[in-house]
Amino acid sequence: MTDQALRTTLAYFEAWTGGDFDKAMTYVSPDITCDAPAGRLQGAEAFRAFMGPFAGMLRSAGLRAAYGDDSTALLMYDTETALVAHAPGAERHTVHDGLITHVQIIFDRLPFEEARRGADQAR
Amino acid sequence: MTDQALRTTLAYFEAWTGGDFDKAMTYVSPDITCDAPAGRLQGAEAFRAFMGPFAGMLRSAGLRAAYGDDSTALLMYDTETALVAHAPGAERHTVHDGLITHVQIIFDRLPFEEARRGADQAR
């Protein structure tokens, strides 16, 4: 057993939290499936449309824990974003041949919804 | 390096998802700190007041991934609850001497808030 999946996942994580989302996408399979809080996303472009804007409003990120083996990786991190000060997340990745083919991502949408609601009311 | 933390975490998980929340609490330190989406909880009674009601409305649960070492464990799971059909969660545990001393738990509060809002409107 190797940690091949974990290495791919960490390279992806370091790229997007380091501000290079295009590099992050080089670790993502064109046929990725992503199970996000709002539902299932299919394909790299849908994944980019979901994660790209989040990466774009990132102020800082810190890895809390990361484990994996040759096919699966699991990580938890904290983020600070322009919209929400404290937005931790967890992701489970399936990796084949150095590409992430499946992501399950968990985060709390409530503070993002509340921030948007507040912005709408302030208009 | 052993997997002592992971074994404690899995025993806790199996107890609460198996309907025995009192047994689950035997793996929890009296001085536990829990970082939950709504903020920090301090002590076993606050933790019980938070997790107990969730465990009580659980219909089914499935472990998606679990990793750990001698001091830390990380797991992701799906749940089906009476309030929300699909409510996945992720937890990072710190374990000392067979007791969980810190939990960071991530889940999406939005569907729970929406379900409660719907129930309020139906009154």
TrEMBL record, chains A, B:
Superkingdom classification of source: Bacteria
Pfam families named in the record: SnoaL_2
Domain SnoaL-like: 11-102
Name assigned to this protein: SnoaL-like protein
